[in-house]
Amino acid sequence: MSPATSPRRLGAALAALGVIACGAALTIGPGGGAWGERTVPLLAGAIMALGGLAVMAEPATQDTTTTLRAEMRAASLLLLGAAWTVALGLVGFLVATLIAAPLAFALFGQRRASPLALFALLVPVALHLFFFHVLGVFPPYGRLFDLADIRLF
């Protein structure tokens, strides 16, 4: 496989997965939130499809090392997303996101501990506010335990 075709194949795969994700999101019921449960998955699928098209439109490069790194980063991010989804069902939204958020930022090149620790705290809080209070979408509780079960007051 030549360096010119590899990013195009990756882009095509991402675009196809995005379209599939959009189709799957449309099967989600309307729900009780202001926007509904399908809003975020539908947006994520659309962004993935558009991102795949953007990758396909990029000019070909002969730098195979850079191309391989980008492909590995994209594959790692997809695997992290899959692991986060499994962790949601086991340990709940807050713990799964607390672990996944700094790992995602590390995949994008952040190496300093203090920003990663800050992301580990701020991302779950921001997503919690967005999903629970803006969208009215409540993810399932973790089967093993869930921080949302703990009452501080």
Fold and architecture overview:
- The protein has 4 helices and no strands.
- It has helices at 5-25, 39-57, 64-107, 113-135.
- The radius of gyration is 18 Å and the shape is globular.
- Helix 1 runs antiparallel to helix 2 and helix 3 packs across helix 4 (113-135).
- It folds into 2 domains: 1-62; 64-153, no CATH class.
- The chain has 153 residues and is mainly α.
- Residues 11-138 form the DUF1468 domain.
Keywords:
Tripartite tricarboxylate transporter TctB family protein, membrane, transmembrane, mainly alpha, 2 domains
What's the structural blueprint in terms of helices and strands?
Layout: H1 5-25, H2 39-57, H3 64-107, H4 113-135
Keywords: Membrane, Transmembrane, Transmembrane helix
Pfam family, one: TctB
Organism: Jannaschia donghaensis
